[in-house]
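[09:14] KT: can someone run the structure on this one? pasting the chain below
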Amino acid sequence: MLIDQYRPHVERYEKQAANQWLFTEYSGLEAILTLSSVGVEITLADLYEAVEFEQRQEKTS
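[09:31] RB: done, structure tokens below
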């Protein structure tokens, strides 16, 4: 599992079989991350509860 520190975004890799992985991506504070192996569901809003994201300015050329 990769948890982004700059924006509400999680990438999860779940092993399915030998040499086979399932990739699931979660974006936005309303997304719900499910970890069925341990019976946990958590929103990204809860996961990032104490995190204050910086506003990034897009550069235009």
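[09:33] KT: thanks! The radius of gyration is 14 Å.
[09:34] RB: yep, looked fine to me
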